[in-house]
């Protein structure tokens, strides 16, 4: 069963604070860089984007494994060939969207990213 979690943007500031110091500065201070916020990189519309953790191995055909995290955007219109999350009587299913659908389905959102664990 897939679990749906709403994304909460981090309130932390990852900006590097420049210390006030006297004397000569360290030569390495210009290498300080802010951290990468994956919410900024992977999410276009935060109010309609959700994380979904995969709970079973039924989606191996799409290279989606147990405990992978799907980033699903509900504001997008699916294009042919894209993976979509649809609701069924039994819960959620992942389908590759096509224009010649034989059956009617309830679209929940378009999968924009799949995050795999490597360990």
TrEMBL record:
Domain of life per record: Bacteria
Pfam family, one: Peptidase_S24
Domain Peptidase S24/S26A/S26B/S26C stretches: 21-95
Compositionally biased region (Polar residues): 19-29
Spans annotated as Disordered: 1-32
Biased composition (Basic residues): 9-18
Protein name: S24 family peptidase
């Amino acid at each position: 069963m897939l679990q749906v979690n709403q994304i909460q943007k981090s309130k932390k500031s990852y900006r590097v604070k420049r210390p006030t110091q006297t004397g000569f500065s360290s030569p390495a201070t210009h290498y300080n860089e802010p951290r990468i916020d994956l919410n900024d990189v992977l999410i276009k519309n935060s109010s309609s984007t959700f994380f979904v953790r995969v709970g079973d191995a039924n989606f191996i055909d799409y290279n989606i494994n147990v405990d992978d995290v799907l980033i699903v955007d509900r504001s997008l219109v699916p294009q042919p060939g894209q993976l979509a999350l649809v609701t069924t009587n039994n819960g959620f299913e992942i389908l590759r969207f096509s224009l010649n659908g034989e059956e009617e389905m309830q679209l929940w959102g378009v999968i924009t990213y799949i995050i795999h664990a490597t360990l």
